[in-house]
């Protein structure tokens, strides 16, 4: 596992060095987060992602595919005025990042405005985030997930947990302060371990009752206070399916906006092929079973829904989800071993 961490670090180091504008963009964002006046100035030239009750705005391209709608400041102000909202409402936006051209990006919740009027003016539609993941690219998915997570955090942290007094945001939205207690609150992510268990020739996938019909995914669970990644992984597999992990390998990480804002730590794990009897915790899972290489390969190639609109018997999370990455990595390794 240590080798995987070293490779990940080296890749990030090479990426940073190869991007000539990376350092300047990073320091520009740092200034926008810390300097309210600089952030207000950036709002005049930024790109804006709109959300209606946390559902992002998508637009259909001429080729018939959907993309994440990013509105220029001038266009957004014009649209706001047309739907009866003061253009200064853009100041309620939260800073997300910036493009490769150092154009600042913001998220804005417009749930108090008329949805149909906004969709008409923006020539798009607001789509539930889980559904949007199947409609846009991976890079767009990461950005839109971050935007929703930041909006949700501000919506649920408007008051100080120590005094009950209102908290006040800075302009970028990078923190909130209770002036009564002096406590500063920063957006947080909850660590979650997600693991694909294999017995050597099969992999184990499970589903919760809340999943769409037919969808199975890797096992996952929140890390407990004081636990290491390894301890959380062993515990979750034992609790949910009654299996004992023998070996594990780190794969990668990902921010995931559900149920609030999670930090997914993805691993592969193996169990003894002679001890594969699954004992499901029905309070957590609806079903869990072993899948063959052939079943996994077919699911990875299959769209989530067929032309008649009926869900397939078995399908996996969308490509953006790190669970899909784990499943794809397992399938690739199986294919290599068979050759």
UniProtKB/TrEMBL annotation:
InterPro entries cross-referenced by the UniProt entry: NADH_PPase-like_N, NudC-like_C, NUDIX_hydrolase-like_dom_sf, NUDIX_hydrolase_CS, NUDIX_hydrolase_dom, Znr_NADH_PPase
tRNA-binding recorded as keyword: no
Nudix hydrolase domain mapped to chain residues: 187-317
Annotated SUPFAM superfamilies: Nudix (SSF55811)
EC top class, as a word: hydrolase
Assigned EC number: 3.6.1.22
Keyword Magnesium listed: yes
Catalyzed reaction equations: NADPH + H2O = reduced beta-nicotinamide D-ribonucleotide + adenosine 2',5'-bisphosphate + 2 H(+); NADH + H2O = reduced beta-nicotinamide D-ribonucleotide + AMP + 2 H(+); NAD(+) + H2O = beta-nicotinamide D-ribonucleotide + AMP + 2 H(+)
Name the UniProt record assigns to this protein: NAD(+) diphosphatase
């Amino acid at each position: 596992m240590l080798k995987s961490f070293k490779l990940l670090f080296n890749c990030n180091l090479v990426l940073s060095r190869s991007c000539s504008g990376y350092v300047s963009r990073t320091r520009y964002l740092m200034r926008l987060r810390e300097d309210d006046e600089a952030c207000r100035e950036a709002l005049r030239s930024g790109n804006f992602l709109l959300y209606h009750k946390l559902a992002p705005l998508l637009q259909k391209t001429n080729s018939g595919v959907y993309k994440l709608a990013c509105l220029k400041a001038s266009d957004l102000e014009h649209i706001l005025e047309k739907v009866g909202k003061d253009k200064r409402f853009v100041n309620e936006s939260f800073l997300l990042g910036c493009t490769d051209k150092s154009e600042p990006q913001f998220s804005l919740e417009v749930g108090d405005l008329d949805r149909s009027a906004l969709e008409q003016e923006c020539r798009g539609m607001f789509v539930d985030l889980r559904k949007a993941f199947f409609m846009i690219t991976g890079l767009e998915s990461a950005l839109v997930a971050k935007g929703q997570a930041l909006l949700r955090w501000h919506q649920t942290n408007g008051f100080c947990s120590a005094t009950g007094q209102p908290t006040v945001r800075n302009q970028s939205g990078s923190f909130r302060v209770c002036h009564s207690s002096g406590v500063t609150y920063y957006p947080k992510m909850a660590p979650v371990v997600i693991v694909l268990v294999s017995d050597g020739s099969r992999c184990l996938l499970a589903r919760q009752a809340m999943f769409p019909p037919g969808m199975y995914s890797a096992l996952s669970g929140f890390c407990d206070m004081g636990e290491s990644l390894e301890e959380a992984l062993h515990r979750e597999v034992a609790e949910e399916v009654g299996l004992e992990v023998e070996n594990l390998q780190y794969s990668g990480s990902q921010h995931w906006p559900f149920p609030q804002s999670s930090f997914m730590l993805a691993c592969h794990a193996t169990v003894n092929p002679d001890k594969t009897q699954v004992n499901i915790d029905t309070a957590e899972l609806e079903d869990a079973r072993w899948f063959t290489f052939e079943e996994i390969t077919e699911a990875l190639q299959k769209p989530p829904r067929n032309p008649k609109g009926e869900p397939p018997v078995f399908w996996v999370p969308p490509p953006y989800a790190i669970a899909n990455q784990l499943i794809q990595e397992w399938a690739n390794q199986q294919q290599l071993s068979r050759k």
